[in-house]
Amino acid sequence: MGKLATIGKVTIRVFGNDHLPPHFHVKGTDFEALVAIATLEVIAGDLPAATRKEVLAWAAANRAALVTEWNTWNPNIPFA
Description:
By secondary structure, this protein is an alpha+beta fold. It has 2 helices and 5 strands; from the N terminus they run βββββαα.
């Protein structure tokens, strides 16, 4: 569902029937995190420093795609 990018061994996804706030999932070999789309803050889990920099840079450059993907998979709780 909603796989948006792979950065090295890290996958960025948006899931359907998810919960607020609108966010995306980041999964690596030995970590997982949730990042809020609006603020790009890690709201759950943890990202290693180097991965955090890359993921947040990608997210900032692709925020429109994240919003579109969130709204596609979560039409009942759209990103406003």
